Amino acid sequence: MKKYRGLTLIEVLVAIVVSLLTLGALYEAYISLLRAQKQQVKIAENNLQVLMALEYLRKDIELAGFGIPRSVSITLNYNEANAYATCSPATYNTAPSGMPKPLDLGDNTCNNSDYLVIRSTAANLDKAVSRRWGYIYYNGSNWERISLSSQDFSDADKCVVLDLNRALVSWDVFCKNFTGNNTSMIYFLFGVNDGTLRMPFNRVDYYLRRPNSLPARCNPSTYELYRAEITHNGTRNEQPILDCVFAFQIVAGRDTNGNGTIDQWSKDLTTLSASDIFSQVKEIDLYILYQEGTKSRTEVTENSTVRITYPDGTYEDINVPSRYYRWKLIQMKVKPLNLEDFKL
Question: What are phi and psi for residue 340, nearest 5 degrees?
Fold first, then answer.
């Protein structure tokens, strides 16, 4: 008769231990894959957010000065932004009786980063009227209005009116009701808002600010990059466009001698007049240092300092708060397309 031998207790224990070790290794591999997948998802989300933020910046800078008068031929008195406790937009309000600046730039004036102001009639993305413009002329019997946008002005739309020399003729007028006083003149209409105007332009500001609650994945030393539209009651309608930003630096390339070549780079434009900015600023370079993905379990950043090198050879060293985060520096060059001095 054949005898059957069972497993001993030691053999059973060894089998259990081997199984547990195998399961542990598989679990650790699964967790590592899960972490990597989560990190890649966050990086992909970051990249999409970065592209959207850069597109906002590019469009606003290219349109800086659109519909802004080059001179003022009427009595002008307007208001801009209300004062705020921190990163106040009122710091950059222009003279209320003179020619508005198309853009302004403050060096490290808000949370150790720069502050960018852009003025144009097209800056208000919430209003369709800001995407409408056209001209009006006298055809011999009446004033005829021609729309140069995809949609004509509505009855409620308010405009600023410039002549061929870009002098301000009128503002806070209904676009459909304006008629000129010189039948030989062509007047250009730029839509601004569909209510009473506080200023003869729209304005948008970019700056870093830490909200009450940062996204959980962000290093606590980072900020949100905000795009804030200054409304026509003086308040700011701010929206975060990029998470986990540590530094936001800007430099403006200027042609100070009028030979068509940039000969000076400036990080502050607050002392320049509107005429100087229109004639001199040829390029805006932006540098954004932000956190990519989530915190790592091991050090992933080789150096604790990130260097920003500006076009004139000067540089700025930024000390990042932790090597356990991936810090990425992106740079974008934008040419303002509406600052060139040409006739309408």
Answer: -65, 145
